[in-house]
User: What shape does this take?
Amino acid sequence: MFGFKKKSAKESEENTERASLSDRLQRTRSGLFGGLFSRNKKVIDNATLEELEDRLIMADIGTKTTDQVIQLLKAESKKNSDANPLEQLKKVLLPALEPVEQALTIPESDKKPFLILVIGVNGVGKTTTIGKLAKRLQNEGKKVMLAAGDTFRAAAIEQLQVWGERNKITVVAQTHGSDSGAVIFDALESARANNIDVLIADTAGRLHNKDNLMEEMKKIHRIGDKFDPDLKREVLLVLDAGTGQNALVQAKQFNESVGVDGIVLTKLDGTAKGGIVFSLADKLNIPIRFIGVGEQVDDLRPFNASEFIDALLVSDEQ
Ligand SMILES: Nc1nc2c(ncn2[C@@H]2O[C@H](COP(=O)(O)OP(=O)(O)O)[C@@H](O)[C@H]2O)c(=O)[nH]1
Ligand SMILES: [Mg+2]
Assistant: This one.
């Protein structure tokens, strides 16, 4: 870690957390910056800049952001040539991610529940994320209910039910093949009757073809209005970081069809393509609510731009 001096107990604790985030992001980190900068090498020379440029492109950061980084870094190193290159990099990278650091907040309201509609293609980690998120909200003292809106796959309903049982969270479900909108409508009624704070609804990720999937999502969205035109909600899109530029394509499609309020970027622990977070921030500017860095229940973390960048910039030698 660069630039850290004497630490208080609290700071050391935060550092341990950050260190473990950097472990989780190890593949992206070593792909991006591994071996490029040493503490003793103060000046960023042209060869290093060229190598960095290649790596940023390889990491799916996108050409535009890559150009910005390289240009800014060139200017920065001219201005202040004995600055720590990692600090310069952080200065350049942080403004790219800060605008999408916006936490998911559940508004205090007499009119419950708040609906979180979880959408995304098959296999990105929707159901797993719902489990993690439900637990997190429960720990914050919220009453949570789940709706098994992925009626397309029987296994998806079971997966959610198992999860609900383990954590003592009610799961509203109907049989495989039933109408997803009807399940969510039922769940909304039940949640209101039971004074539930947050209803998290799972949805299907594959329906014959893309148009079909988008139509279904629109329909489900309308169910909320039908239940209560004033229903407060969050359309939460789950994306698998490992799919790189594909994640960006999916985000555009879902955003155009239903409007996305927030993104969860999963599987950052297993991929070298974590740079996609920069592309998403640059191209779409949709808040990134959480990142998924593992399969365990506490592996869903609020997205924090500074922590994320620090985790990527941990120098190899320390
Ligand atoms: N390593 C890792 N695996 C994850 C993460 N999130 C989800 N997964 C795994 O991805 C697979 C698909 O997840 P699932 O929730 O069923 O996806 P869904 O089809 O979108 O509901 C499962 O094996 C999960 O354990 C993550 O952040 N990291
Ligand atoms: Mg699922």
In short: The two ends are 7 Å apart (CA to CA). Residues 210-227 form the longest helix (18 residues). Residues 114-302 form a domain with the Rossmann fold fold (CATH 3.40.50.300).
